Amino acid sequence: MRKFYSLALVGLASFASAQISLPALNTAYTQNFDGLVSTGTASTTLTGSLAGWSISETAAGANTTYATNNGSVNAGDTYSFGATGSTDRALGAIASSNVLSRWGAQFKNDTGSTITQLLISYTGEQWRMGDATRGINDQVNFEISTNATSLTTGTWTPVTALTYNSNEITGTAGLRDGNASNYRTTLTSTITALSIAAGQNFWIRFVDVNVAGTDDGLAVDDFSLTPQQSTSLATTENTASKKVFVKTTSVDNEIHFGVKSEVKIYSVAGQLLKTASVSENGVLNIADLQKGIYIVAGNVDGKAVSEKILKK
Fold first, then answer.
1. Tally of CB atoms within 10 A around 152
2. Three-state SS at 215
3. Range from 148-152, 217-221, 248-252 carrying the lowest mean pLDDT
4. pLDDT tens digit string along 279-301?
5. Cα end-to-end span (Å), the chain
6. What percent of the chain has pLDDT over 70?
7. CA pair distance 219, 205, nearest whole angstrom
8. Using a CB cutoff of 8 Å and minimum separation of 24, what contacts does 275-284 make?
9. Cα atoms in the 13 Å half-sphere on the side-chain side of 304
10. DSSP state of 44
11. Which residues of 40-49 are buried (b: 16+ CB within 10 A; e: fewer)?
């Protein structure tokens, strides 16, 4: 049985000094964690395609390595989960009173604009069911901080819409195939009411909860983070350039521009739909887009601007 006891925790952590740059609004950063090792163990100092990500372990069994696990190992630890020898990996843990794991990443706002919301998506995977008699879900919580300097400092805000609950809590304890559809859950949520200034850093993290009984092996895969601006801020910031960038925000099949610019058109969910070069007083045909609301992004006098339009 793995239960949490009130002990003085010993913390050993690996904190990446790298920051993941977010170069443009509505452009997604993605991570599939396939840069994790597929055999043996490795340092919690993550590099290469995982630069900017960190792993932190606390409690008496904390160390500076993570291990591979196909779901057959039940010891408390941080793991690179996946089928034996496969390069398709997911980052996760099994919590215990001996090892508590957190993992996450540091980002920097290099968009040139204030980020007011983040579109987050990831897939939770269950690689082991720990206890057939526990009767409750194990879970991994998602949290965000705008003042942290590591995974264990600062003020963190939980985002309950991004909590991953284990897919199965009954049956025989043992390994599960986290790549199978019945052991995977895709979670998506937009975090609003943010004010992350240009040049500012922020952190996100996943916290493996230590529940009563033997914990499950839970992991995170296919992570995506898209910096965005709410409509209200975009309108406020673009007031000075509104007349010269997009002349009319309610359109039929053409958008009329007042300045020369490289233009990108996004869905409200942040998906890039169209790119084009427009001239001063130029026109862009959008007959191929369905009726609805879109975000038009460009550059005016060296500053990034964006405008919401309605295609009627």
1. 15
2. coil
3. 248-252
4. 988 999 999 998 888 888 887 77
5. 60
6. 89
7. 13
8. 281/256, 281/257, 282/256, 282/257, 283/254, 283/255, 283/256, 283/257, 284/254, 284/255, 284/257
9. 17
10. S
11. eebebebeee
Q: Beta strand 29-31 with 217-228: parallel, antiparallel or unpaired?
A: antiparallel
Instruction: Name the nearest CA neighbour of 138 among 176, 104, 84, 88.
Output: 176
**72-77, Cβ contacts within 8 angstroms, sequence gap of 24 or more:** 72/128, 72/174, 72/175, 73/128, 73/217, 74/128, 74/130, 74/173, 74/214, 74/217, 76/2, 76/100, 76/215, 77/101
Q: Which residues pair with 31 in a beta bridge?
A: 223
The full 3-state SS of 292-306, as one line of letters, equals EEEEEEEEECCEEEE
Q: Which residues pair with 107 in a beta bridge?
A: 20, 202
Rg (CA), the chain: 22
The two tokens of residue 266 are 């996004």
User: If DSSP states are collapsed to H, E and C, what string results for 178-204?
Assistant: CCCHHHEEEEEEEECCCCECCCCEEEE
d(CA 94, CA 5): 16
Read off the tokens for 17. 């000094």
User: 10 Å Cβ neighbour count for 52?
Assistant: 20
Any residues with CB less than 8 A from the CB of 153 and at least 6 apart, and which?
none
**pLDDT tens digits, 117-127:** 999 999 999 99
Q: What are phi and psi of 3, to 5 degrees?
A: -125, 160
- Bridge partners (DSSP) of residue 140 are 164, 208
| Dihedral angle sign, alpha carbons of residues 191, 194, 198, 202 | negative
- The residue assigned the tokens 């372990």 is 57
Residues 233 and 105: beta-carbon distance below 8 Å: no
